[in-house]
Amino acid sequence: METEKPETGRFAPSPTGRMHLGNIFAALVSWLSARKKGGRWILRIEDLDPQRSRIEYARQIEDDLNWLGLDWDEGGIDDTGSHGPYRQSLRANFYEEAISRLKETGLTYPCYCTRADVMATQAPHESDGRIVYAGTCRPASLSGKSDSPIITIPDTKRTERATRLFVPDEEISFTDRLYGPQSVNLASHCGDFVLRRADGAWAYQLAVVVDDALMGVTEVVRGSDLLLSSAQQIYLYRLLGLTPPRFAHIPLICNESGVRLSKRDSSLSMERLREEYTPQHLIGMLAYISGILPEPFPISAHALLPLFSWTSLRPTPTISI
Ligand code: GLU
User: Fold this and answer.
1) The ligand 1 atom nearest the CA atom of 212
2) CA-CA 20 to 30 A from 114: which of 138, 169, 180, 276?
3) Would you give the DSSP letter of residue 73?
């Protein structure tokens, strides 16, 4: 008989800078949701990008979580727990295995396009920053038609090549815990997407699926900027024969000019916030602006647990402060 997986949440920060208010909001809601059900909480360090990731930032993330009182059962830099390692830079063997299984499906192919090639084939209406791959390197066997949309001829003599995954022209549907039913056509949303970059770096989409599945994660809580990419992940779960977690996206926090916070803005970084507030003030303020508390008052993460419910969160894409 199959045993039920224990409720498991996770926080998966990229150690590319000091966390900001939006990052700690995701950590807080993910922690509250897992702990409310008596579940476990994992800290996974998403240091896939070798150029931008730094161990010092990972240490600061741990220090900031400890300061906020958000404790984890598994993971972190010292790899506590049985599903390690918990730093993605040390998990290449798991990604290798998954990509070989995906290659066996016949749906992957080498892509020789440079970034400039990909940009050159962009449809003019893709103004929201999304890149939709036009299928330049896709083999005719996968296109299912002889007039595949080749616009630029890639230089197939380049030795570096990425591995791309063919996506079908069909809707992928799922229900987000906060934003409700979603339906995404991957062919128009992103096109065939990269599993491994030409420089050998693993793509987030592949790594996140492999890790959440192997770590037994049952609920993914993260910012609404990743809502639609859940469809790419559900597609990968299907191809790998794995069960997806429950997805729960939360509003992004924007500054007073309505611009989403980034790790480059210092005004709401943890460095500044820790100088000005106590952990209880910050948690009370986040709980108030997101609708968890009807009014702002200082409160610890543990004291907020009985007051937390998903129904109090408002499904707006952003929250301005
Ligand atoms: N590593 C991503 C970030 O720091 C989060 C990805 C996820 O939660 O799936 O924004």
Assistant:
1) 9
2) 169
3) S
